[in-house]
Design a protein that fits this description.
With 126 residues, this protein is mainly beta. It contains 1 helix and 8 strands, in the order H-E-E-E-E-E-E-E-E.
Length: 126
């Protein structure tokens, strides 16, 4: 039984070394409504499987992320903003690939209703 526990602990430790580190500052150029390009900055911090941080860019300034999760190279979180009494939720799902995170983002709610899903890449800032 001790051998099984030791092997399991070693496997978990090895997996942790292979999993990419999402902690840090990430930037992306994202197409906004009307075709305007905007820069989005994400400050992310992984704490085990929990992801915390902020997203800055676009309307509304800096916003805290919620429901943040990390599972190996996969991550997800939401950002909730309110404009003129309208609540809008942006849901992000990403996959790390070295110093790039490939994101799918979906926006729901607000005065504009649900928006089409967008794909973009965020790069780790140096």
């Amino acid at each position: 039984m001790k051998f099984v526990r030791a092997a399991l602990a070693l496997s978990v430790a090895a997996f942790s070394l292979w999993a990419a580190d999402v902690t840090g500052k990430w930037t992306a150029e994202m197409q906004g409504p009307g075709g305007n390009t905007r820069t989005v900055t994400m400050n992310l911090k992984a704490d085990g499987s929990k992801l915390i941080g902020t997203v800055t860019g676009g309307r509304g300034g800096e916003a805290e992320i919620s429901d943040g999760k990390v599972d190996g190279n996969d991550l997800s979180f939401s950002v909730v903003r309110e404009f003129n009494g309208n609540k809008m939720t942006s849901s992000y799902e990403g996959k790390m690939d070295g110093d790039v995170i490939h994101f799918n983002m979906k926006m729901e709610g607000g005065a504009m209703g649900n928006m089409p899903e967008r794909q973009f890449d965020a790069k780790k800032a140096s």
